[in-house]
Structure formats: structure tokens, C-alpha cells
């Protein structure tokens, strides 16, 4: 299992809608996330900075392949078309990134 953390901005005027759509994530999108070997997926909001932090645990053996298959899923792409315009990618993100990857610096396990 490998842990992943990402950060992205969100336009403040879109926060109520972002909360609304994430209160009822489409079953097909949730199924695709599970099929992509992702578990314990969470998104946190930080205000007043208007940042979203995403965390998940990857339980597969081909992260790049699973992410590529997710990106090809029509229902997931439709979901991203709704959520994407609400987000504000960081200028410092890596090439090809939408959500900026974060580096783990501490972990305490049981």
C-alpha cells in the first residue's frame, strides 16, 4: 500500500457547489475509484486559503496504469468536467499535474 496526497485551490464562489456534488458522488465514479485500487480516499477543505487536500491509499501494483484507466472512464470524465472548473490548480504544480502532488514527511502507524 502506498499513500498519496495532493493539493489544489478552489474558487471561493464554488465552495457551496463543490460541497453539494461531493455529498452525493455518483455511484459509477465511486466504483471506478475502487476499481482503480484506491481506498480511504478523502478530500479536506482549508479556508480562508481555499485549498483542497486529497488523500488516498493505493493498494494496486500499477498506479500509472490504474490512473490512466480511470482517466478513460466516460462517467469519471463527465464528473471531472463538473468539478474541474471549480478548482484552481497551483502555479507550482508539476508538468502534467492538475492536483499538485505532495511529499510525505511524517507517518505514525499504530
How would you sum up this structure, described in words?
The longest helix has 10 residues, at 63-72. A hairpin with a 4-residue loop joins strand 2 (38-46) and strand 3. The protein has 110 residues and is an alpha+beta fold. It has a single domain, classed as Dimeric alpha+beta barrel (Alpha-Beta Plaits). The chain has 4 helices and 5 strands; from the N terminus they run E-H-H-E-E-H-H-E-E. It has helices at residues 15-22, 27-35, 63-72, 74-83, and strands at residues 2-10, 38-46, 51-58, 87-88, 100-101. The model has no long low-confidence stretch (mean pLDDT 97). Strands 1, 2, 3, 4 and 5 form a 5-stranded antiparallel beta sheet that branches.
Short description:
The protein has four helices and five strands.
Secondary structure blueprint with pairings:
Blueprint: E1 2-10, H1 15-22, H2 27-35, E2 38-46, E3 51-58, H3 63-72, H4 74-83, E4 87-88, E5 100-101
Overall, the morphology is globular
CATH topology assignment: Alpha-Beta Plaits
- Helix count, DSSP H or I runs of 4 or more residues: 4
Give the CATH architecture: 2-Layer Sandwich
Amino acid at each position: 500500500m502506498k499513500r498519496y496526497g495532493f493539493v489544489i485551490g478552489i474558487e471561493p464562489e464554488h465552495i457551496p457547489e463543490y460541497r453539494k456534488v461531493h455529498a452525493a458522488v455518483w455511484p459509477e465514479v465511486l466504483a471506478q475509484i475502487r476499481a482503480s485500487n484506491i481506498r480511504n480516499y478523502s478530500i479536506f477543505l482549508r479556508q480562508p486559503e481555499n485549498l483542497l487536500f486529497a488523500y488516498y491509499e493505493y493498494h494496486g501494483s500499477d498506479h500509472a496504469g490504474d490512473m490512466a484507466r480511470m482517466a478513460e472512464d466516460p462517467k469519471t470524465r463527465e464528473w471531472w468536467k463538473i468539478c474541474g472548473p471549480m478548482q484552481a490548480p497551483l502555479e507550482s504544480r508539476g508538468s502534467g499535474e492538475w492536483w499538485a502532488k505532495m511529499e510525505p514527511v511524517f507517518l505514525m502507524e499504530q
